[in-house]
User: What shape does this take?
Amino acid sequence: MKVCSLYKNWFSAEDCDYITRYADKILDVKEATVGRDKKETIHQTRKSQTGFITKKGLANSELWYFVSSKLVDIITDANKKVYGFSISGIDAIQYTVYSNAGDHYSWHTDTFFDQNPFQRKLSVTLQLTDPSTYKGGDFELLQRHEYSLEELRQKGNVLVFPSFLSHRVTPVIEGERKSIVAWFDGRRFQ
Assistant: This one.
């Protein structure tokens, strides 16, 4: 199986700027947590700020539909061509800001292997920030793949990968990195 799929310039620079402006204005962005219940703050594992884009509220729903419609097209294409997973829909869309020196997210997976009948199956990350405006903050997959670090850092590029693959964001050294992360779920893996 191909490890990941990269969609170059799927979102234009203007799209990314629109998402960032809108998200900064309307989302309740606060310290990120870890785990399914989203109650733990463990800085050695994760240090960043997040806000969730939902369908609730007029302002929030406009951003939801703008982002989700483009992401659904990508997931449909990647899943049809590469993965073949049983996908039900979007689990969540998260806006993430790594803005302080040292902000990071250590090695982790996005799938919870618990008793829930649905699991995250495909993860998506959209790079919103111009790579020249920050240092560090690199998205890395533990598994080897065909894309360069520079390709993954390009504003507007979208990476799709199975949610059970280990990945991380290295510590930001300076500047600010913003991204959209979304998860597509389906019935438990058999």
Observations:
- DSSP finds three helices and 13 strands in the chain.
- The longest helix spans residues 58-83.
